From TrEMBL:
Coiled-coil region(s): none
PROSITE patterns per UniProt: ATP_CONE
Family indicated by similarity: Belongs to the NrdR family.
Described purpose of this protein according to its UniProt entry: Negatively regulates transcription of bacterial ribonucleotide reductase nrd genes and operons by binding to NrdR-boxes.
Cofactor: Zn(2+)
Designated name of the protein: Transcriptional repressor NrdR
Keyword Nucleotide-binding appears in the UniProt entry: yes
Zinc finger motifs (unnamed), residue ranges: 27-58
Domain ATP-cone per the UniProt entry, residue ranges: 70-160
Keyword field: ATP-binding, DNA-binding, Metal-binding, Nucleotide-binding, Repressor, Transcription, Transcription regulation, Zinc, Zinc-finger
Gene (name only): nrdR
Length: 185
């Protein structure tokens, strides 16, 4: 069976909840311009709404998925939709030559999205997205973390690196992992 997923773009989370039945959706089988919602249920703790739809023309059923778009506000004031792919791209650069694969990057991007969505705001400043990256990246790879943090926090001197490295060491000590390698294979 064809698993047809559609992402409806809309602004804001709360309005989505009251948007019963959603908008009309073209049938993926016969291209009929409208379809009837036969069932709606929340998934991913309410982050997604899955709708089972039925086409009045050909009678076939299909599923759509609606997700509230999270807008990232850049320093320039321009907004763009939150994108895990973008997060992965940015972090991948910091991970060059490091033992970090795409699965790990995808998991990191997922964690970042969960963190920023958990705030419940429809818009989030880009620097908060950067902040949300730092934690999971530090757990993933300390060298990549230092590279990312140096750009993100605009390190200007060796002193900035030294302070960050001291902070890394201190947090490792707190975790009771003195002398152990940062990452395990
Ligand atoms: Zn149809």
């Amino acid at each position: 069976m064809l698993d047809w997923r559609a992402r409806k773009l809309s602004v804001g989370g709360p309005s989505l909840r009251t948007w019963k039945g959603g908008v009309s959706m073209r049938c993926p089988y016969c291209r009929h311009a409208d379809s009837r919602v036969v069932d709606s249920r929340e998934a991913d703790d309410g982050q997604l709404i899955r709708r089972r739809r039925s086409c009045p023309a050909c009678g076939k059923r299909f599923t759509t998925v609606e997700e509230a778009v999270l807008a990232v506000v850049k320093r320039s004031g321009v907004t763009e939709p939150f994108s895990r792919t973008k997060i992965m791209g940015g972090v991948r650069k910091a991970c060059q030559g490091r033992p970090v694969d795409d699965d790990a990057l995808a998991l990191l991007a997922q964690k970042v999205e969960e963190t920023v969505r958990a705030r419940g705001a429809a818009e989030i400043p880009s620097h908060e997205v950067g902040l949300a990256i730092l934690g999971p990246l530090r757990e993933l790879d300390e060298v990549a973390y230092l590279r990312f943090a140096s750009v993100y926090r605009s390190f200007e001197s060796l002193g900035d690196f030294e302070r960050e490295i001291s902070a890394l060491r201190a947090s490792r000590d707190d975790a009771g992992k003195v002398g152990e390698p940062a990452t395990s294979a």
